[in-house]
Structure formats: structure tokens, C-alpha cells
Amino acid sequence: MSRIFFAIVLLVVTLLPIPSLAGSSAASHPVLPTDEVAAFSNKVQRDLAARGANVAIVSRVGRDPAVLPDGINYTHVAFWVYARITKADGSTGMGYRVYNLYQREGDLTQSDLVQDSPGDFFAGAHSLDAGIIIPDPRLQRQLLEVINSSTYTELHNPRYSVLANPRSGQFQNCTEHTLDVLMAALYDTQDPAQIKANIAAYFAPQPVQLGALQRLLAPAASQALTTIDHGSDVGTATFGSIARFMEANNLHDEIYRITPMQVVRF
């Protein structure tokens, strides 16, 4: 290709509105005041504990909602597990540990499994708005078994893509890992091939509309935005698509949204 073509590509990539799906990154530069984040994370913890949730799927808004693609309201998803924790003063008590998949700092095409606190989880939020799924008690027990076993880490694929195809094992993002763990718990399997077969058979990804030029140039803008694991249509796992799967199969106790001012059922 000529230098002129590369110059045109660079210009278009710079100007093109690439889909703004926030990656699953730990918060290095918090957007919101720390006291507001702390108050909100404590509110979510108290709410979950009051509902008797030992395991919940919780999501946060990591980007300005105005720039998110249609149908996508949350950008990071993780398991919250009620367990004995060590507090900042060294004392111990019961609280929630958050099981995340985060992009690796310095190489956003790779990811790591990271445990942190509710305050750390919301430190990366653009707005204080959490989508929450509380699985039914039987599924919570099954999820705990998987999370506390080697299967949880064995299902991690460090090759990260924001738009990872959940039916493929080529790449993974935080929501796909959550879905893989969920399927392992539901079908009592550690086999990645069986998990992907079940996802292909029973799970409907969230469609993401991409123009042909956007799709061609997205990898040039960020290798974490690749779509090479998709066919003619692009679809990825999201909090909303997991919520719909849980609701359609009666696998949930509650699905709702919590903000500093209200709790709203979906």
C-alpha cells in the first residue's frame, strides 16, 4: 500500500467515531469524587446483603452513556461474592469481594483476573448506576463452587477484545468470562468446548451495529477492538443480554438497577 493510503487510513481512524465500549479496566484515574463512590458502593453492599445475596452479578457504567452503542447501558460486569474480608484497619468481617476480569495496564489486548473491593469496582465508574442480577439460591450455590475452584481461572482467556464473540473462544472480555462461568455452573462442566456449544445454542448476544469502514479500521485504532472472531454480524455479551437469558430461563431471584436515589426493577 502507498504512503498516501496509510495517511488516509490514519486520518480516518482519527476522525472516525469508533464504538465507545469501555474496556474492563481498573480505575487508575477516578472520574467521580471518592466520598460519593464510597457511599454508593456501601449502599450497593447493604442492599445486596439485605436481600441475602451470596453471589450477585453487578455492572457499572464506565463511559458516558451518550457515547455507548444502542442496547448497551453498562460496560463492566463482575461477580460480587459475600465472604469474610479484611478491612483497612486490619480487622475482619463479612462483606463483598469483587471478582473481575480487567485489561492489563500497558497492554489492553491482554487481561488478568483481579479481586478487589466494591469501592475499587465503582472507582472506575462514569456515573453511579449499577445493574444487578441476583441468581436464584440454587444457582448461587453452583456459582460459588465454580468461583472457588480451579475452573474459574481455567476459563480465563487473556486475549482481550472489547467486542469478543461469546460463541468463540478466540478472545474474551469481562462479560464473556462471567457468561462462561455461569454456563459452567449451570451445566456442571469444565469443558470450554461444551460451554461454547451451550452458549451458541441458548444465549443471544447483544447485536452491535458497525459500519463497514468502522469495522475495517477498528483494529487500527485499537487492537482490543478487533472483530475478526465474528462473521457478517457482530454480537457480544453484555449485562443486558445476560439479564435477558437469566429471565427467559427463570434463573434469577431479582434483576434491578440501583442509583444513589432509587432502586428500579428492569
If you had to describe this structure to a student in words, what would you say it looks like?
The structure is a single chain. This protein has 266 residues and is of the alpha+beta class. 36% of the residues lie in helices and 24% in strands. It is built from 9 helices and 9 strands. It has helices at residues 3-15, 34-50, 118-123, 137-147, 150-154, 174-187, 192-202, 212-221, 239-248, and strands at residues 55-61, 76-86, 92-104, 107-116, 127-135, 206-207, 235-236, 252-258, 263-265. The strands form 2 sheets. Strands 4-3-2-1-5-8-9 form a 7-stranded antiparallel β-sheet, with helices on both faces. A two-stranded antiparallel ribbon has the order 6-7. Helix 4 (137-147) packs across helix 6. The longest helix has 17 residues, at 34-50. It is globular, with a radius of gyration of 19 Å. Mean pLDDT is 87; it is low at 4-20.
Topology:
Layout: H1 3-15, H2 34-50, E1 55-61, E2 76-86, E3 92-104, E4 107-116, H3 118-123, E5 127-135, H4 137-147, H5 150-154, H6 174-187, H7 192-202, E6 206-207, H8 212-221, E7 235-236, H9 239-248, E8 252-258, E9 263-265
Antiparallel strand pairs: 1-2, 1-5, 2-3, 3-4, 5-8, 6-7, 8-9
**Averaged pLDDT:** 87
Order of helices and strands: HHEEEEHEHHHHEHEHEE
Q: In percent, how much strand structure appears in the residues? A: 15-25%
Backbone structural class: alpha+beta
Shape: globular
Q: Summarize the amount of helix as a percent range.
A: 25-40%
Largest sheet: 7 strands, antiparallel
Give the terminus-to-terminus CA distance. Answer: 50 Å
**Got a strand count?**
9
The number of helices is 9
Strand order of the largest sheet: 4-3-2-1-5-8-9
Taking Cα atoms only, what radius of gyration do you get, to the nearest Å? Answer: 19 Å
**Low-pLDDT residue spans:** 4-20
